[in-house]
Amino acid sequence: xxxxxxGMVLIVLLGFSCKKKADVSGAVKSSAQSDKPVAxxxxxxxxxxxxxxxGDHIQVQTMLGPGIDPHAHKPTRxxxxxxxxxxxxxxxxxxxxxxxxxxxxNLEAKKPVLAVSEQLPADKFLFPEGSExxxxxxxxxxxxxxxxIIDPVADFLSAQYPENRSDFLVNAKELKSKLIKMDxxxxxxxxxxxxxxxxxxxxxxxxxxxxxxYRIRVEGVQGISTExxxxxxxxxxxxxxxxxxxxxxxxxxSSVSDKNVKALIEGAASRGHxxxxxxxxxxxxxxxxxxxxxxxxxxxxHNATIITxxxxxxxxxxxxxxxxxxxxxx
Length: 330
What we know:
Blueprint: H1 2-32, E1 38-41, H2 44-54, E2 59-62, H3 77-85, E3 88-91, H4 101-105, E4 113-115, H5 143-147, H6 150-160, H7 165-190, E5 199-204, H8 208-214, E6 217-222, H9 232-244, E7 249-253, H10 259-270, E8 276-281, H11 296-310
Parallel strand pairs: 1-2, 1-3, 3-4, 5-6, 7-8
Helix pairs in contact: 2-6, 6-7, 7-11, 9-10
């Protein structure tokens, strides 16, 4: 009798255990399983663009998060696995992802891969002094220019997933309209910066397209890649500029060390000119996921608003659409 009871208990426990395992495995399967193709994007600016166009048809993932410098990032084992597992890959191109380019290009024969910035006509690219003939990759800093990439991305997605073409094209048209309107708003607030104060000095030369689009002089301590060194001559040159033009503020970047910008502030102070830190700008990375600044429009809204206010122009601290986070209200 005793053994029979023990046996029955064991059967019940075994049954419960099996049911529990089945429930757990089922939950994992249902949460992880998706019939949507996976698009892997290297940087958040590209990811945001693809996500808007793809809508609900594609699962869009971004490889490099906030504060990560794409110029210097070496692909990890996890990155390589993600690239190999993705159904389609989008990267910025123009050598922005310098240390990952070979890895990405090696996959072109196996799956669709698109360098989004390289879809622009060659005459749209800027070649800053000291770039050694390489095009500046930071094209997203010009909102109207970035909007020109929308159609090529929509066409590329449509070629791979023709059943969703109509949705891609509708989404693309809507996004382009929003960016064109935003471009005009940025131009409007930056025009309020006094002519003598229209000098933007940042950690590295990521704002040339911003300069070209919005008529503001831009200087970077480092070149278009953060891999370049900041020489004493360049720092002294920028200190001269700060003092001579009585520039009010300089800016750090979220994905670049602030040591060189601090050197500028100290250099100007040693010559009797006080320069403030105007704020942190987004250059090669966006803000935190889930925040307004973690979107492309939020990123550029943040930059334009911070720059305008710090250089003496007129802008609402809450941004173009009243969406900037409280931390930006300075």
